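Two records follow; treat each independently.
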Amino acid sequence: MAPSWRGLQKLLGILEEASTAIGMTFNTKKTVCMIFNPCDKRKMVCSDFPQFVLAKCNLTFVSQFKYLGHIIEHSFSDDADISRELKSLFTRTNLLIRRFARCTSDVKVKLFRSFVLCFYDIALWNNFRQASLKKLASGYVKSLKLFLDFSNTAVSLRC
């Protein structure tokens, strides 16, 4: 990260020199750049930037990037990451339904708590629409109902 185009290009040059000294190479097809615009549009200095160059290759500009499982957007919004988490929630629930449909309700609750409730990255969310969060909450309830099969069984939960 750098406060200016020139600063980042200089950092990339230093990185390239250091990597050459130790014999390290870059996969420039996986290396991308993202521009974070200021929240106050009046403080925006420039909207177009020259290409960044690393190892004699132009780097691609992106508006969204997945880093360590978390989706980062140039607009600082977490809505795309919430959507990713919702898809992951349904994927994990469907896997549990296929493998453990015949288990008792107590076992299903333990499985759901340990396998589906792994929202480790939600502490990073701080800029999102309430609709996205409500959709995730609704998806959670729907997943729980699908897995516990509330239509056939009356189960009281203390989650």
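The next record belongs to a different protein.
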Amino acid sequence: MRRRPFLAGTLAATVLPSSRALARAAGDASSAGTPAPAYGAAIDDLVAANHILAHLGVVDGFGHVSVRDPRDPARYLLARSMAPALVTASDVVTYDLANEALDANGRTSYLERFIHGAIYRLRPDVRSVVHSHAPDVIPFADSSVSLRPVYHMASFLGRGVPVFEIRDAAGPASDMLVSSNALGDALARTLGGANVALMRGHGMVAVGERIPEAVFRAYYTMMDARLQAQAIGLGGRVTYLNAAEADASTATNRNVLMRAWELWKRDYGGIDAR
């Protein structure tokens, strides 16, 4: 029996906005006239995030990261279908929350862009989404062993890490890709109010209220999975962060995570970073 997000029931009312709320948010953004610098900064951070995730090994030739469009919360920004390490500003495409490209101009789209629109529809608090195939997380997605925080940098996992079973939504013979709105919605429901969801036989998604937070969570989820597997492999009893430790560490990390982002962006954010 597959694991389910333990917070899904208690958080459902707070993470599922109505279409009216999204429309109102979009109208507010439009009337406010989001300054061009905010959009430019979002593009700059999105390009840097692609390079950082590639350098840190969270993504390789596959995987992607998006950001909610600061000009309109009913849209998001995502690169065209390409290797993240090679993304430039000219590769960024605008999508609506139905995952339709609004300015593709011949540029191809990621097959799994549906992950992003679905999460943005269900989670108004989320402003950035990372999808990764990091191999370290796969054993926890494919087994009965739950991914749990073993050190403070991954304390955000203390909210629970649900596992998406694509067979429940696509049947027993899918190609394992979240390549439709229906599958994106199923994944978003599994994520619920959590910060990370694993995908059986596939990878993970990590979300944040801003790009640096989503990148931070994607990287430290991968590292926590690596450390937890090592700790289990030692053969003794593994001590995980308890709920109070996880909450306290998460609050601290949210205040200091820009330290890591600023370093990563300086060292790895450029197009020539390898």
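Discussion point: The radius of gyration is 18 Å. How would you locate this feature using only the token line?
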